[in-house]
Please model this.
Amino acid sequence: MVRKERHIIKHLIQLQDLVAARAQQQAAMPKQKLSQLDKNIKTLTDELPLDLRSNFNRLIQKNIEALAPITGENCSGCGFSLTKTMVNKINGGAAEMSRCPNCTRILYAPDVLLTRTVPRRRWGDPVKRGIERFSAPELMIPKLQGTTPEEVLLDLCENMQAEGYIEECADLHEAAMRREAIVSTAVGQTMAFPHIRGVEGGGLTLSLGISKKGIDFGGTTKTKLFFYMVIPTAASAFYLKLLAGLTQSFSTAAQRDTLLKAKTKEELWAALSKGTKVLVR
Ligand SMILES: [Zn+2]
Model:
């Protein structure tokens, strides 16, 4: 029997997205019940062929990004250089699933590859610590202009582009919107963590935008604080720690007020740096 490979890969990507969303919710809201997501995960898992099901479960427990798109001739998960034969097989949608010989992830040819260039560290640059490793004053937006989820996410994306952290917004913005469609990244307490996973190149990048009025972002309360992140595949496990660190750093109204009060990029950056000093290292 020849498997409909592309169909199964799509199915696995969908399943992986749900598992990732579940892990994110758990990191940000440890006490929250996740029944709907759990139900969807179970449905998709039950639809998999038996042999694949146990394989995939084992893989995803080892690494939350169990699938990795190939980038040219490399595994985007670990950078391992693949043989031409393997690359051709993957691009041709062969009947057999290909695994990276180095990190064992299931490899696939992406429809759209989300990429960015790697900003290079210059000699003499001071060693960065804490939140400085992922963010910078120019990525702070103390006053978001948008009034809908789509507009807000576009503001955040375009600012990253304008500041040279990504080249092109279109695909990334679409990916962020698709992620919100799975389940909102609003975690209550006026905070949301919209993001794009599986981006090739560069390190994890965080931008913070504030909407003083708040926006209906799918949470139980209006969302005022938007922690927007671009996450490379290699940083996906670390991302969950960062997410937990940020939610804990701003778990009280007084802590969040320090961010909400900021009027300039510099003030917002100072408040973010101070607020995360203990929990984000
Ligand atoms: Zn690999």
Summary: Residues 130-275 form a domain with the Mannitol-specific EII; Chain A fold (CATH 3.40.930.10). Residues 75, 77-78, 80, 100, 102-103, 105 surround zinc ion (CB under 6 Å). The beta strands are 67-71, 74-75, 98-99, 106-108, 140-141, 186-188, 191-192, 195-196, 205-215, 223-230.
